[in-house]
Specification:
The chain has a single domain, classed as Rubrerythrin, domain 2 (Single Sheet). It has strands spanning about 1-5, 10-15, 25, 35-40, 45. The chain is globular. The N and C termini lie far apart (about 35 Å). With about 55 residues, the protein is mainly beta. The strands form two sheets. Strands 3-4-5 form a three-stranded antiparallel sheet, with no helix packed on it.
């Protein structure tokens, strides 16, 4: 399993073995929604994009 630090609260986050780039995860400590930007050589997390009202139209 891979681990990363939450960019909001610095808590440790454990990612599932099948986690992929672009996946949205939540921090258990601060509930921030985060996007997996990179998995190798280190895990990088960033704020998840805001959902726009016109997406999918």
């Amino acid at each position: 399993m891979k681990t990363a630090k939450c960019p909001k609260c610095d808590a440790d986050i454990t990612l599932a073995d099948d986690c992929e780039v672009g996946e949205i995860i939540s921090c258990d400590e601060c509930s921030a929604e985060l996007e997996v930007k990179q998995l190798e050589p280190e895990v990088i997390l960033d704020d998840a994009p805001e959902v726009q009202e016109d997406w999918g139209e």
